[in-house]
Records
---
Amino acid sequence: MLDDRALIYRLLRLVNLLSRPFQERFGTRYDLSLTEWRVMMALAARPGTTATEISDWSGLHVMNVSRSVARLVRQGRVLRAVDPADRRRSLLRLSRRGQALFALIAPSAQAREDMVRTVLSDSEAAALRTMIDRLIAHLRDETTEGGSAFGASGPATKPRRKAARGARESS
């Protein structure tokens, strides 16, 4: 049974505690959701990328990335351009307004990381990075191979079966 000793629970709790101050300090003040901030971080690190690439890199669901990108474009924080090599793709980058907002928030994000890291030695931090990278690679492999984080009978597969059955019954 999953309880507060489960690894997944602890990882979720850690992510929530790490991101909690964001909304309090920046989200409301700058009308920016945590997902939008994550998209901005991805674009600061990888300008000229696509929403799908941001999703792959960040682990965020592509629909959440797309919604965040659309909102950031409406706010003038992200610019979208057609990829000259493949006109079906949109390349994204931070606008000047987006870069300015990123520059305003990024030091606090870095300070948060530095504060968290103070409880780890250099070797512990390196070992943690290695373990996290291994978990990310494993979960990416599992996702790209068509697996489900919930297993074969988990929530991700049930609705599709029902929909397929309903389509067969109505034919």
---
Amino acid sequence: MKVAANTLRKGMVVEYNDKLWIVMENEIRTPGKGASVAQVIMRDIQSGTKTDVRFATQDMVERARVEEEEYQFLFANDDEYTFMHTGNYEQIIINKDLIGDPAAFLQDGMIVTAQMHEGKPLSVSLPDQVTALITEADPVVKGQTASSSYKPAMLENGVRVMVPPHIESGTRIVVKTEDASYVERAKD
């Protein structure tokens, strides 16, 4: 399906120069003189290389047909993660590079959404937020105000996060998976 270059959004998959690319960023630029252009940053799904392409806003780009399917996380073996399709119970193995940094937040039985193209996984999306246990937290420094200061803490999965001063070791918190930022104390 062809779409106009100015309608490309982050996460869309397009066919360009006989390769599949995922759109990382699209910015419409209007120079002082002349027509507007779409400045698109894309990553090659196969090799991982990035490219910066300038399209005229009315240029048509082939959008790849991508299905979103739910998978359940089973286990990890080094940098390979095994998932099971929730409908037909088929298993697939996905490399950590495809998942990225959020892979640290995968938990047994977690349901994720995989973007698939012709039976091959293109990307994996975790839930927006997960609950995690704090294993280490720096002590509170007297005189720090709770509103403006955060302190470093370590989660059970080895990820470092910044938390408010009142959060201590052993506390369960809610964390955003995309950037490992603190959301709130978990309601147990």
